[in-house]
Amino acid sequence: MRWRARAAARRAGPGSGVRTWLLASVGGIVLSGCAGGSGPAVPGPYPSPEPEIEAVLPESVIDSLEFAPPPEDVSTDPLRATSMLRNPEFEAEVTRWVERWTEMPAPWLAREFERMGSHVAEVDSMLKARDLPRSLRYLPIVESGYNPRAVSPARAVGLWQLMEGTARDLDVRVSPLIDERMHPGRSTEAALDFLEQLHDDFGSWFLALAAYNAGPARVRGILRRHAPLEPRSDALFWKIRPYLPRETRDFVPKLFAAIRIAERPENFGHSGPSVRPSEYEEIEISDQATLDVVARAAGVTQEEIERLNPHIVRGLTPPQATVRLRVPAGTGARFRARFAEIPPEERVTFLEHRVAEGETLSHIAVRYGVPLADLRAANPSVRDRYLRVGRLLTVPVAPSVRAGGMD
Predict the structure, then answer these.
(1) How far apart are alpha carbons 354 and 390 in whole angstroms?
(2) Which ranges of 289-397 would DSSP assign to H, the alpha helix?
């Protein structure tokens, strides 16, 4: 696929170093659906939609619309220059979502803006490098509330809510230990690859966004059935909108509602996203290590390493695989020197064990050579008599590291 070639070319570029980006924070809610989503085949047949009457607002009404002027000429942002902003039905849908969101408790919106401020510099940089619409910076508000750990009911994950199949097509690593959909940089790179490809295929940003949410196969099917000869345009999205899934029908209006609120937050009692750049370095680990060991070697807190690396989903890097991690700027050299001094058997302070039939805590403690008391302390909710087959237990290892042997 074309996006794969583009992504591979980018990853073959200059190496890492100290970079200034906005970084992750945890928490939040999922506002929308998933990228590359799929569902049942398009139902039909459908009744013909009502004849479309092109609605053009008078200039006086257009001037009163609440979209703030973009920070640069609209010609550089096709989403902000779309003719759909003159469609009163579209405007009414956007207004409906603005009103719905602003009627929710104020702390909700403030949290969205806080998380956006932690990531938007990195997103803006990638959008600018690809010459993509700047307004796409608001898409993660709709998708995940800018929460890199967000998981939807459909199991879409991360800032951009990528489904597992779509992520794998985009060469994004997904495994029990590492999920790059939660990596702010890697997921943004992949999502923009996908959006570029969809725009190339559909010739319209509104149609591309519909395909991002519902899946390109579903949108192609609706177009074949209901608009096979229509030129691809943003207005065509509105024409086929009645045939799209409900979530997708709302997807684009919700994006424009997010744009409206985020660009004029003072109208809604907020200060808006506050850009908080932070410096980090990237380091490589070529075998298993736990994040507490990484933190000790770098001389920072475990919470800081976990915040910078939400894609390490269980606090443990994969065995026999190279993983790039982020550490605070200025700590990379210290990490490399101290980590090299740690024996490989002490780079992991815990393992996970899945209980097999017939096993007891005593058997498991003997197997890993750890005191039974330590095993029980690491799993306080587990009782030997009720040990369930298939349950994951935390097995503490490398006691010298846990005791601070690197200090």
Answers:
(1) 5
(2) 291-298, 302-308, 332-340, 361-368, 372-378
* pLDDT tens-digit map of 47-76: 333 333 333 333 433 333 444 444 455 557
DSSP assignment of 124-173? HHHHHHHT--GGGGGHHHHHHTT-TT-B-TT--BTTTTB-HHHHHHTT--
Q: Return phi, psi of residue 13, to 5°.
A: -75, -160
209/217 Cα distance (integer angstroms): 13
Pairing state of beta strands 392-396 and 19-21? Answer: unpaired
pLDDT value for 6: 53
Paired tokens of 80 = 């902000």
How far is Cα 86 from Cα 210, in angstroms, rounded to an integer?
20
pLDDT at 144 over 90: yes
> Which of 18-22, 48-52, 289-293 is most confident?
289-293
For residue 37 the two structure tokens come to 């989503």
Where helices occur in 215-331 by DSSP H, the ranges are 216-226, 234-240, 246-263, 291-298, 302-308
Q: CA–CA separation, 161 vs 37, rounded Å?
A: 9
Burial class for 80, CB neighbours closer than 10 Å (0-12, 13-18, 19+): buried
Is 4 a residue whose pLDDT tops 70?
no
Helix/strand/coil for 206: helix
**Confidence at 108, pLDDT banded by 50, 70, 90:** confident
Contact 45, 224 (CB under 8 A): no
Q: What is the DSSP letter of 341?
A: T
Strand partners, 179: 174
Q: How far is the C-alpha of 187 from the C-alpha of 167, rounded, in Å?
A: 8
Instruction: Answer whether the bond into residue 45 is a cis peptide, omega within 30°.
Output: yes
Q: Dihedral sign for Cα 161, 163, 168, 173, please.
A: positive
With a cut of 90, say whether residue 358 has pLDDT above it: no
SS3 of 254, please?
A: helix
Three-state DSSP at 39 gives: coil
- The pTM for the full model equals 0.77
Sequence-distant (≥ 6) Cβ neighbours of residue 163 within 8 angstroms? 34, 35, 36, 37, 38, 154, 155, 156
